């Protein structure tokens, strides 16, 4: 019985070993593009917020260039009437200001007439005083009369000065009344809301009959985009990736409204006012693009990819090959002693860094029924495949990406599986966890 148990155990062990096979793929040559992926919002390049400088009830809307009532999407020219505020109170203030100006003008005319009269009296008093001075206090001119002529002259001089001041006061009153009239007339003009620019209304925030109150902040009535043929994407980029972004850098993006179309743009500028949300620091990057066909609508969500680097006609391996490490008994005997430490480090899935700053990793090539190590230097990655360099790596070399039982669905044999197709039983890993240098997002690789 003991012998039979030992024989059955040996048979089971042999069969289980024979059913295990390596999943292998060939090292292939192609193109790899490293990108940084981020999310942004489509924004008009220049937006004008139209507010109200006076308060009141919205009485009516204007008409656009096609004669239709102003509404969302209306195309307006500079000076187009957008809306009118009830102006009855402001019109009354204008009439009151006009009356005040007339009153000030009348006051000035009266002051000027009084000045003329006082100047005539001064002239008469001056002549009387001159004659009195020639006669002097004598039998012909009593001292009291002499003093009276002198006093009348001095009083006349003072009256002229008073009337001259009254004229200046009247002129100032006119200026004040005119300024007051200008102010109420301007307020009356503010009751008619006009477009300061040519553009498209992308938001109407009031309705007829609604009362707007203007206090410290002007209430917003309309939002006008000056030119929707030029559009921007405001992209939030993680602080870990912002160092790879620069003005003029090409970028592509897609929107859910047109999932099968790729739009192209380039980085315009990077804003320095970073924001923090849940301890994550992000910077806003502006990507400019043409929108001549007006497909892109304001405030669409965009999935953006910044091109960081590209390599053409290089050797590529799937990222899974960089993470897989064999068991000691799977390594060819002549490599076991030297590969034991390499295998342990490969299981940590963290490649070492050379002194030159380029990451190193180990691939495992098929050596009969075993595997042998192939040391490589890593280049660009797109999150799926990674560029490899080294004297021992060759195009077409069979590289192990995992293990799988023989005969199961999706089992791979040498040359029988695509390195770009997810394999059954192999855990997928986010792009930002892939080994190698390059961007943190997905991308495309040449075949």
Question: In short, what is this structure?
Answer:
The protein is α+β, with helices and mostly antiparallel strands.
How is this structure best described in words?
- 30% of the residues lie in helices and 34% in strands.
- It is an alpha+beta fold and 447 residues long.
- It folds into four domains: 21-33 and 312-433, no CATH class; 37-44 and 230-309, Elongation Factor Tu (Ef-tu), domain 3 (Beta Barrel), CATH 2.40.30.170; 55-86 and 194-225, Beta Barrel (OB fold (Dihydrolipoamide Acetyltransferase, E2P)); 89-190.
- Strand 17 and strand 18 (370-381) form a beta hairpin.
- Helix 2 packs antiparallel against helix 3.
- The radius of gyration is 45 Å and the shape is elongated.
- Mean pLDDT is 82; it is low at 344-357 and 409-447.
Characterize the biggest β-sheet. 6 strands, antiparallel, barrel
Whole-number total of structural domains: 4
What spatial order of strands do you see in the largest sheet?
A: 2-11-15-13-12-16
Q: Rg to the nearest angstrom?
A: 45 Å
Q: How many DSSP-defined strands?
A: 20
Please give the share of residues in helix.
Answer: 25-40%
N-to-C span: 59 Å
Number of helices: 5
Shape: elongated
Instruction: Report the mean per-residue pLDDT as an integer.
Output: 82
**Poorly predicted sequence stretches spanning 5 or more consecutive residues:** 344-357, 409-447
What is the string of helix and strand elements? HEEEEEEHHEEEEEEEEEEHHEEEE
Structural class: alpha+beta
What is the strand content?
25-35%
